[in-house]
Amino acid sequence: MSYKAQVHVSLKKSVLDPQGKTVLHALGTLGFKEARDIRVGKYFEVALEAADEKKAEESLRKICERVLINPVIEEYSFTLTKSA
Amino acid sequence: MHELPRQELTKGEGLKAVIVVFPGSNCDTDCFHVLRDVLKIPVEFVWHKQGKLPQCDLVVLPGGFSYGDYLRTGAIARFSPVMQDVKRHAEAGRLVLGICNGFQILLEAGLLPGAMLRNRSLSFICKPVWLRVENNQTPFTRKFQSGAILQIPIAHGEGNYFCDNDTLKGLEDSQSIVFRYSAQTGELGDEFNPNGSLGHIAGITNAKRNILGMMPHPERASESLLALTDGRALWESLV
């Protein structure tokens, strides 16, 4: 089966995000006073083959934890859909 | 005081060094030049695809932009075939020195604790900075005076060292923080920290003291032709 995953990676809440802080500051300067916080992250689209959804999820977790994120500073979430 | 691992490993013969070259390494030849021409240490390059390291005492992971810094700095280089043998070399207690991108690779490979974030300013910073030697009881720093202040260049966009509080406490308790960014007087403070690193950390070792990761470039400060010479004692410590 073919699956498509959308993976979001972000810095852990406890980690200061210099990029997010800078973007937030820029928004304030531009008059977007309603913006309260910004965290900059990464987005991956992964196409993968797996026997079933459970297996797809298992390999995706491995891919995320071994390669896509650095667990010291980052966390991730994903959505998985069967592709045609 | 810790045992200095090199002494039991070289068996009276001179130090032999290897420099690992990744696609995108760009300080490899600087390190080679300093080791061979300035310090007269036998040295050879090893391409990252090589499965086995030659017999050596010191492995240098040089600065640069391995794999274009894609994904995260050092994140792809740690899977290079040669890294398995670098890990075995390190586990055997032999010396590993990671400079700049080499430090980032050591962190990603789990050979040293922590991770790198973007510099606080978000800018790539290339300039000489002041460092304070926090521990001169390591194989890499024994030729420095305790508390010596060094001027050595940095050149990085991601040198903002981060780790959790327990890890930081562990590093401090085990005196594994070897270099901190400081003022020329040795004073510590945010205004003397170029990248925002936690605890003003510029370089750390493991508890066994055979692995050193540092953001500043000692190979750019090892001969009078380049004006700065404070890095030279690091190489001399190894001989």
Integer average pLDDT of chain B = 93
Radius of gyration of chain B: 16 Å
The rough form of chain A would be described as elongated
State the helix count of chain B. 6
Order of helices and strands of chain A: EHEHE
Q: Would you count the extended β strands of chain A for me? A: 3
Poorly predicted ranges of chain B: 1-12
Placed side by side, the strands forming the largest sheet of chain A appear as: 2-1-3
Q: What is the overall shape of chain B?
A: globular
Q: CATH topology of chain B, which one? A: Rossmann fold
Strand content of chain A: 25-35%
CATH superfamily of chain A: Phosphoribosylformylglycinamidine synthase subunit PurS
Helical proportion of chain A? 25-40%
> How do the strands of the widest beta sheet of chain B line up side by side?
2-1-3-4-11-10-9-6-7
Structure overview:
The complex is a heterodimer of chains A (84) and B (239). In chain A, 33% of the residues lie in helices and 33% in strands. A three-stranded antiparallel sheet of chain A has the order 2-1-3, with helices on one face. Chain A is elongated and about 50 Å long. Chain A is α+β, with helices and mostly antiparallel strands. The N and C termini of chain A lie close together (9 Å). A nine-stranded mixed sheet of chain B has the order 2-1-3-4-11-10-9-6-7, sandwiched between helices. A two-stranded antiparallel sheet of chain B has the order 5-8. In chain B, α3 links the parallel β3 and β4. The N terminus of chain B is likely disordered. Chain B is globular and about 45 Å long. At the A-B interface, α1 of A face loops of B.
Q: In summary, what is this structure?
A:
Chain A has 84 residues and is α+β, with helices and mostly antiparallel strands.
Task: Give the SSE map.
The complex is a heterodimer of chains A (84) and B (239).
Chain A: E1 2-11, H1 18-29, E2 41-49, H2 53-68, E3 74-82
Antiparallel strand pairs in A: 1-2, 1-3
Chain B: H1 5-9, E1 17-21, H2 28-38, E2 43-47, E3 58-61, H3 81-91, E4 95-99, H4 101-108, E5 115-117, E6 125-133, E7 149-156, E8 160-162, H5 165-173, E9 177-181, E10 201-205, E11 211-214, H6 232-238
Parallel strand pairs in B: 1-2, 1-3, 3-4, 4-11
Antiparallel strand pairs in B: 5-8, 6-7, 6-9, 9-10, 10-11
